[in-house]
């Protein structure tokens, strides 16, 4: 029996993880489950999986969590410090699935325990890539990528030397607006942006997929996870979402990982690593799918990948600035304050103002850059 903590247990990745754990209860002992503020849902999950502690990061939800857990013997806690303390509990595997920079500190706390972290929070490596990878090396931790693209690359690299890699290709579905014209894209609504054609995801990551910032963030993440150089990282639009990424080797061989568009597949890869486990997924029916197609990204309609690559090449604080500005802009779009096309405009405007700081050397530096970039982004949202 292995011990498990899930940071972000009520989100899409957390729910998919618990679905797999539910099917293999004899293999797991759940230590900590966390959520932002879904007290009733979190308490129900904590009771179902007999967790040792449940934590809400929104401290105002703590009374409701305590009441829901009354008599269960499960500890309840709330607030940012409680979240970090829960993440720091030694376990065999921590699933880091808190969306955005809110996941930085707890993910770092898990890394500092020297355990294995299944990382689903791409913003952590985007904003704090050098800081986080240095901490992984310093504490002897292991990072397993949960994102379907990075998990695919991870699988394709097994048994091979990174020095033999000629190129890595991240595939992108193209999102719900892949075939739309510029004017229609500019008028897209939040409801349309979150209606992904292939994947079931949260609102923020769904909007990122629609803008292609998701793929830009993944490019920066891949730069830290698989150090082959930015010039060897490519993006290819693949609407069927069957090939999740590919690795080309210097002998001309290209290895690809295929699977259904369901997060339980890469999560299972992390839960069972270095072995394999059963999942409820049906076998991939390539004959039924019929055709796998590919397109080059259209950076005129979707400039996010160009903006992200430029930020990665600029280095320093630019990736952290990009991530913070994007989070603020996406939230504003979902709230109806700006248009869809304005997301990229806001991000690029903030990068022009705030990417000149040196590379963060600590988590505190990252959070300072993040706070400053968010302030600039909020200013950029205001009418001139």
Percent range for helical residues?
40-55%
Contiguous uncertain segments of 5+ residues: none
Structural class: alpha/beta
Cα-atom radius of gyration: 20 Å
Classify the beta-strand content into a percent band: 15-25%
Q: What's the domain count?
A: 3
Quick one: overall form? Answer: globular
Give the distance, in angstroms, between the N- and C-terminal Cα atoms. 59 Å
Compute the number of strand runs. Answer: 11
Instruction: Please describe the biggest sheet, giving its number of strands, its sense, and whether it closes into a barrel.
Output: 7 strands, parallel
Could you please describe the fold and organization of this structure?
With 384 residues, this protein is of the alpha/beta class. It folds into three domains: 2-145, Rossmann fold (3-Layer(aba) Sandwich), CATH 3.40.50.720; 147-300, no CATH class; 315-384, Orthogonal Bundle (Rna Polymerase Sigma Factor, Chain: A), CATH 1.10.1740. The chain is built from 17 helices and eleven strands. It has helices at residues 12-22, 39-48, 62-68, 80-87, 104-111, 122-139, 148-157, 182-186, 190-193, 203-211, 213-225, 264-272, 286-289, 304-314, 318-334, 342-354, 363-381; strands at residues 2-7, 28-35, 53-56, 75-78, 93-96, 116-119, 142-145, 165-172, 233-237, 243-249, 254-258. The strands form two sheets. It has a seven-stranded parallel sheet with strand order 4-3-2-1-5-6-7, with helices on both faces.
């Amino acid at each position: 029996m292995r011990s498990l903590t899930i940071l972000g247990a009520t989100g899409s990745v957390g729910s998919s993880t618990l679905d797999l754990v539910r099917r293999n209860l004899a293999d797991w002992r759940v230590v900590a489950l966390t959520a932002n503020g879904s007290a009733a849902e979190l308490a129900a999950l904590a009771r179902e999986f007999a967790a040792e502690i449940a934590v809400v990061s929104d401290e105002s939800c703590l009374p409701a969590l305590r009441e829901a857990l009354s008599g269960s013997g499960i500890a309840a806690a709330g607030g940012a410090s409680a979240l970090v303390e829960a993440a720091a509990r030694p376990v065999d595997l921590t699933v880091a699935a808190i969306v955005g920079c809110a996941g930085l500190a707890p993910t770092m706390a898990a890394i500092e325990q020297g355990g294995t972290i299944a990382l689903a929070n791409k913003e952590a490596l985007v904003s704090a890539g050098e800081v986080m990878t240095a901490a992984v090396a310093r504490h002897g931790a292991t990072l397993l990528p949960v994102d379907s693209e990075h998990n695919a690359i991870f699988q394709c690299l097994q048994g091979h030397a990174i020095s033999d890699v000629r190129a890595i290709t991240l595939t992108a579905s193209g999102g719900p607006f892949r075939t739309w014209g510029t004017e229609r894209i500019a008028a897209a609504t939040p409801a349309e942006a979150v209606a992904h054609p292939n994947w079931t995801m949260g609102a923020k990551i769904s909007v990122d997929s629609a803008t292609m910032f998701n793929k830009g963030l993944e490019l920066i993440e891949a730069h830290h996870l698989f150090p082959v150089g930015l010039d060897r990282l490519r993006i290819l639009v693949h609407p069927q979402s069957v090939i999740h990424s590919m690795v080309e080797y210097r002998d001309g061989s290209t290895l690809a990982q295929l699977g259904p568009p369901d997060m339980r597949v890469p999560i299972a890869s992390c839960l069972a690593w270095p072995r394999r486990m059963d999942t409820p997924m049906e076998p991939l029916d390539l004959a039924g799918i019929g055709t796998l197609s590919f397109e080059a990204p259209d950076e005129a309609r979707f400039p996010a990948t160009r903006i992200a690559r430029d930020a990665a090449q600029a280095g320093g604080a630019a990736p952290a600035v990009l991530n913070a500005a994007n989070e603020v802009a996406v939230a504003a779009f979902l709230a109806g304050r700006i248009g869809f096309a304005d997301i990229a405009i806001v991000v690029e405007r903030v990068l022009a103002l705030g990417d000149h700081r040196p590379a963060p050397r600590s988590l505190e530096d990252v959070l300072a850059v993040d706070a400053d970039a968010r302030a600039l982004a909020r200013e950029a949202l205001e009418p001139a």
